[in-house]
Design goal:
single chain, alpha/beta, Rossmann fold, six-stranded mixed β-sheet, 15 helices, 12 strands, 42% helix, globular
Length: 430
């Protein structure tokens, strides 16, 4: 590809994007990289993370000490440079032949020289570049990050905590000697967001397209405050008992019993400043009313719209609309009910809910099966193939607690009997 064609490609709206992290170690770069990758994949933008530290670990096998990261360690510099180039080579393969739209290049990238190399690489291949710099000088946040994340790294598998912390702090000092932060004047032509003190302040420069806008919007909503998100479906409804999908029926007797059980469970949890969200449908509202706490209704949390199939049984759909029934089995995520919605549509509808969940602390979301699947897929990083078949049984609460690079899930069955509404994935060719 010649220079003109590369330049032309960069000028196009939908050319691939390379997200590049910048910052000292233990500043949350990998946390940001993983969350961004998860979010972009969830909204349908094929994204992959390339962690240069992992390339270095794969190359070296055994980590000895911070000495490897000294600026006067020529051998170390050579290996680190080679690992970065190997990662960029894989980025190129992913964005040009691997079906990728966004690649996240997760490394310190602390020098202007390294960043210039990455920009040249992107320009030569027709990629847009967006830098994400994480700046933090709060010693408590840095120490917590080291203990929570870095001590579990393969680098320190044979070290005690004190030795590991001491070595990692020395590693940070090695990077500090050559660190050149993104500069408002010197880097005015670059596209970037600077995240300061884990989201207390932001500096945004030269956002060029909708992908970069969404990245900025997302990063301005996330936080690291410890919290839990509780997801559950409404109590069993009258239409659930009849085996009918959709509709807007009220709760069955067992559904009302679940509401009482949910109230007891929430009280036992002693959750600080819990917010409760429901859909605008009767069965979620009736479930939340029993809790005796304020709740908010979200239209975005309404169940997937089954269109002409609303309030029908699966057997009736198969008899009345055999072609539609077969098409849904072939691609449940993208299949759209006639005059209704697909799971793909539902994900787009739920994006504002995800953004608000990221901003909040403790929240209980009382929702519906398809909605809960979409929310759960976001937090557990599940793809489009798996999402429509995630098990979300009635009368069960899922407690999601964000941890270092993922989410801890606790499933609590409240021991109130209910019908099983889960339909398993059909076998291929059946």
């Amino acid at each position: 590809m010649d220079c003109f064609r590369c330049w032309l490609r960069v000028c196009m709206t939908n050319c691939p994007t390379l997200i590049v992290t910048v910052g000292l170690p233990a500043r949350g770069k990998t946390y940001i990289s993983k969350k961004l990758t998860r979010y972009l994949n969830w909204i349908g933008v094929p994204t992959k993370e390339f962690n240069v530290g992992q390339y270095r670990r794969d190359f070296l096998k055994i980590y000895k000490s911070f000495e490897f990261f000294r600026t006067d360690n020529e051998e170390g510099l050579k290996i680190r440079r080679q690992c970065a180039l190997s990662a960029l080579s894989d980025v190129h393969q992913y964005l040009t032949g691997g079906g990728g739209q966004v690649a996240v290049f997760d490394a310190t990238n602390t020098t202007r020289e390294r960043r210039a190399t990455i920009v040249r690489f992107a320009e030569q291949n027709g990629f847009k570049v967006f830098f994400v710099e994480s700046v933090c000088e709060d010693p408590e946040v840095i120490a917590a990050n080291i203990v929570q994340v870095k001590l579990g790294s393969p680098d320190y598998i044979n070290c005690n905590t004190e030795e590991a912390v001491e070595d990692f702090m020395k590693r940070i000092e090695c990077y500090k000697t050559s660190y050149q932060p993104l500069d408002e004047v010197l880097d005015r032509d670059l596209s970037y967001i600077k995240v300061m003190d884990v989201g207390l302040r932001f500096l945004v420069n030269r956002v060029l397209d909708h992908i970069q806008s969404r990245i900025v919007y997302y990063l301005m909503n996330i936080h690291i405050t410890p919290r839990s998100i509780y997801l559950c479906r409404h109590g069993e409804s009258d239409l659930n008992i009849q085996g009918r999908i959709g509709g807007d029926s009220g709760l069955s007797d067992r559904g009302r019993d679940f509401g009482q059980g949910l109230r007891k469970f929430i009280e036992e949890q002693q959750i600080k400043e819990l917010k409760v969200w429901t859909s605008q449908m009767k069965r979620t509202i009736q479930t939340a009313e029993v809790l005796g706490v304020p709740y908010e209704q979200w239209k975005a949390l309404n169940e997937i719209d089954a269109g002409v199939c609303e309030e029908m049984m699966y057997e009736e759909i198969q008899d009345s609309f055999p072609l539609e029934f077969a098409m849904r089995d072939q691609d449940k995520y993208r299949y759209r009910y006639p005059k209704g919605e697909s799971y793909e549509d539902l994900v787009q509808r739920l994006e504002p809910v995800i953004m608000e969940l990221e901003r909040q602390e403790n929240v209980l979301v009382v929702c519906h099966q398809a909605v809960m699947r979409c929310l759960l897929a976001y937090f557990l990083d599940k793809g489009a193939e798996e999402l429509p078949y995630l098990k979300c049984p009635l009368h069960t609460v899922l407690k999601l607690t964000p941890v270092a690079y993922g989410c801890k899930v606790e499933s609590v069955c409240l021991q109130v009997e209910a019908v099983n509404t889960h339909r398993t994935r059909p076998e291929v060719g059946s």
